[in-house]
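Mods, move this if it's the wrong board.
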Amino acid sequence: MTKKEVGAVNIAWLVNNAQGGNGFDLSEGVEKTLYAMSPHIGQGWFEKIGVDDGIMVSRMVHDLKRSTDAQWIPQGDIKFESPVKNFHVGMWVRGACRYGEYVDGREQAPLEVEISAGKALVLCDYSLDATFFNPAGCRSDYLGANVPYDGLIELLGQEDVNEILTVLGVKDRKGSVICDFPLKLMAPLEQAMSGPFKGVAQRLHCMARVLDFLASLVHHCRSQTRQDSSQALRHKGRVRALHDYLSSLDGKLPSLGSLSKEFGMSARRLNEAFAAEYGQSIFAYITDQRLEAAHEVMVASSEPMKLVAERLGYAHVNHFIAAFKRKYGYTPGQLRRGGLLS
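Not the wrong board. Structure tokens:
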């Protein structure tokens, strides 16, 4: 195989031979490797079933005894580099893990996160450098699938691959991400590891389940994109309604919590969506609008400054004066005394 062909999907094994392109011999079923582990700690093993050219389903199991020495027991040090980019999705379908990834080399501290069952690890890169710890007294079960990036494009097409990588958060990203992931999507991979077949039939079964998994993943990501688009449209409508409301608002400022209830979005999301649409936070917008209105009043009328401040929602006139000076560089009194307008 030439360098240009590395990672391409080759289906010749379906009819021509009984061994995968990367040397997977499946005549005896799933390949299982026991970890070298002291019996007083527990037991663990790694299982894999390969199809061809890097397409592989794997399982990593750790069944650990209770320990008086540590809650988390080191169980793995993963460091690999590949000549091709690989797409990997794996999930702790049972148990938990403390995962640390060295994104910028081992001279820097790892990015650490505790992962519970139902969380997925997603990677689309050439390498991975990480360590992981499993909890004492528990069984942890990690199930994953690996497909070379070029092969993924041949199987699904560039458009769907881009959507998958975007939704899962790994498009153009170095290193892995941990994300929420529907457990039901892993069912085909579970079936791939437990099928009753041998030899070529087993590889056919495994490839079919991998394709089931990828098809389900495409459907999930498309649905997520449609849901996000629909939600974005709803949010945009609410944010614009909020903008209209704020533009005509007088008197005391409402709290972010009350605006959240009024417009049916969490306070954080409402503020973020408003800032994305209008370039500033809700209260920065209100403050700017009110100070601009105050500037016009100071120029066009002799209304007492205290009344202007009260109408704009300031509890104390000094607060109004300070905010006015921060925005314009001079006080309302200096503006009225003249010499500042051209």
